[in-house]
Amino acid sequence: MTQAPSSPVRRSVRVALGERSYDILIGPGLIAAAGAEIGSRMKGRRVAVITDEHVAPIYLEPFMRSLSASGIEAVSQVLPAGEKTKSFPHLMDVCDGVLGARIERNDAVVALGGGVIGDLTGFAAGIVRRGSRFIQVPTSLLAQVDSSVGGKTGINSRHGKNLIGVFHQPDLVLADTDVLDTLSPREFRAGYAEVAKYGLIDKPEFFAWLERSWRDIFAGGDARIEAIATSCQAKADVVAADERENGLRALLNLGHTFGHALEAATEYDSHRLVHGEGVSIGMVLAHQFSARMNLASPDDARRVEAHLGEVGLPISMAQIPGVLPPVETLMDAIAQDKKVKSGKLTFILTRGIGQSFVADDVPASEVLAFLKDKHPK
Amino acid sequence: MTQAPSSPVRRSVRVALGERSYDILIGPGLIAAAGAEIGSRMKGRRVAVITDEHVAPIYLEPFMRSLSASGIEAVSQVLPAGEKTKSFPHLMDVCDGVLGARIERNDAVVALGGGVIGDLTGFAAGIVRRGSRFIQVPTSLLAQVDSSVGGKTGINSRHGKNLIGVFHQPDLVLADTDVLDTLSPREFRAGYAEVAKYGLIDKPEFFAWLERSWRDIFAGGDARIEAIATSCQAKADVVAADERENGLRALLNLGHTFGHALEAATEYDSHRLVHGEGVSIGMVLAHQFSARMNLASPDDARRVEAHLGEVGLPISMAQIPGVLPPVETLMDAIAQDKKVKSGKLTFILTRGIGQSFVADDVPASEVLAFLKDKHPK
């Protein structure tokens, strides 16, 4: 990890948000190059690096070495791995650590890890001194294509996932594609669900390319970098058009309302279901529900099911290990999900592959009836 | 409190922040009129009211009755009074309470109380669902003229005051001037320090009017409403020009760097020192230090001292009950204060009454020597 990358391939995606614009660098060797990339972009010379127990043993030392080689003084804080870390006590720990390290306005807070570390650290950076500089170094596919783009940060509440947070844009994202080689197949697949999502939202050709090329993407190399860059660009375009999620950005929630409900129903137990798996099942359900509402052809739902199933993602509630709570509990989680306005249910539905849209008046009774059909009991 | 106001005098100040613009209504009877004022401005029909143990027994019931009479469904949460409430555990409590009350995007979170309740509740509103509607009903003079204008919210950290928070603008501020009659003289004076601050920043005629008219302002009536409206307008003008405190807004910190250090030195013990008293001493110190640096005439420092002393505010460290920590501890608190850039000290200094400016390269050695002179030992 400490050598210069052997392959020169590197992609850069610009997130255009006026004075809050930033670059996402995507390619091999970026952890080793972190000091140079960060050092050339920031005025301050101090950073606080937040990571977790899974990532630290592999990447923390080379990352710190790279910073040090560029004259950047860094302190690090290692948190427990897992979704439960997205909580108030850990948020307080990180804020205290960053303040204790005397990180000032030109310095930065760095998230070295997956979505949990990125969401928590970004939130802390967003509230320390009412907003500090923030750099993301995402180490999972999910974080590279989703959570590290767009500035959504947050923690979970006992009332639901990501219900507490801020919008806080990073100043730089370094997506080192080498790190994906150390992910478990299950974790890689979970991130792939979000890659597929961008095709399903509004890029039918991209989805068709994924259907043909997924084996290359899973194998690594240029196809993988291409898939990540296309995903980041897709998300960047949506975020640039609608930073605060007043309209268009809601499309990024395709599969997420059902997905979040399933995550809540499995108590965020990653042995049973991880976020990307919830999104995979959620996207299948969204396409099936759209077909049931006569909005889309059942063939499209079957195509989504076939592709996600082929790569090894779960595509039905029945595949979730253990007993699911009753449908009424799922409905309650859906109603408490943040995409709710004055009691009406808002869902992302579709008219076909790559033709998603925001439906903000979905009758709860239809959703209930649909879930009763699909629930494994 | 439940009757319509006997006096029709009401002032309105607009804070011009584009799509985040809002009104501050100032006058008698606004708690009784809260339901009508809120109801006519918001789409949602639910609010969560956050208040404290001191305010609740006097104002919560009439406030809730006013909401109910306008068809607004409200839940309330009563927190302990005092600066220590601005902490992570209480922030978590409020977020949980607001989410538990199912406050949605068109609904609102209401702060009914002084600066502590406003800062904490505004922070909670700023992070619940990544930003919820927020209404301030400030019940202290300090909150009416300072913390309820401008969108700064936050809690304290063990590293210092207000170091964690967000910018989150309210949608409406209702400053009921009747409630000021129930403040203790000490609390009223503490708020008055911030009123005087607006004169000292850039309104020499306002400061001269205060020197002449402070007895009328303390007595209540039109002079008081005029002083509050002028203060709110002064702060609104600064905030509109510089919402995120990149430049001009720093002037509002006149007296605050010294003041915060003194608050930290007295461990936020309100028996020894409250915020406005710290600001009063801090403003005197800022004028004395400016004179020492040959920036301003010592006569101006004496005039500030004379006026603040006349109204009964503390004007020197020697007046703080108990033993102060050594000067080095004060310096450490000053360095950790958030107005620091790459080790340089930033202070608001002055060239005379109403001629404050941002000095961002104040030598720490000069400050240390000055404080050694002024420290009561």
From TrEMBL, chains A, B:
Zn(2+) binds at residues 194, 256, 275. Its EC number is 4.2.3.4. Residues 78-189 form the 3-dehydroquinate synthase N-terminal domain. The keyword Zinc applies. It comes from the Bacteria. PANTHER family: 3-DEHYDROQUINATE SYNTHASE, 3-DEHYDROQUINATE SYNTHASE, CHLOROPLASTIC. The keyword Iron does not apply. Catalyzes the conversion of 3-deoxy-D-arabino-heptulosonate 7-phosphate (DAHP) to dehydroquinate (DHQ). It is found in: Cytoplasm. Its main location: cytoplasm. This is 3-dehydroquinate synthase. CDD domains: DHQS. The gene is aroB. Pathway: Metabolic intermediate biosynthesis; chorismate biosynthesis; chorismate from D-erythrose 4-phosphate and phosphoenolpyruvate: step 2/7. Keywords: Amino-acid biosynthesis, Aromatic amino acid biosynthesis, Cobalt, Cytoplasm, Lyase, Metal-binding, NAD, Nucleotide-binding, Zinc. One of its GO terms (molecular function) is metal ion binding. Belongs to the sugar phosphate cyclases superfamily. Dehydroquinate synthase family. NCBIfam families: aroB. Its cofactor is Co(2+); Zn(2+); NAD(+). GO terms for biological process: amino acid biosynthetic process; aromatic amino acid family biosynthetic process; chorismate biosynthetic process. Pfam families: DHQ_synthase, DHQS_C. It catalyses: 7-phospho-2-dehydro-3-deoxy-D-arabino-heptonate = 3-dehydroquinate + phosphate. NAD(+) binds at residues 115-119, 139-140, 152, 161. One of its GO terms (cellular component) is cytoplasm. Residues 191-340 form the 3-dehydroquinate synthase C-terminal domain. Binds 1 divalent metal cation per subunit. Can use either Co(2+) or Zn(2+).
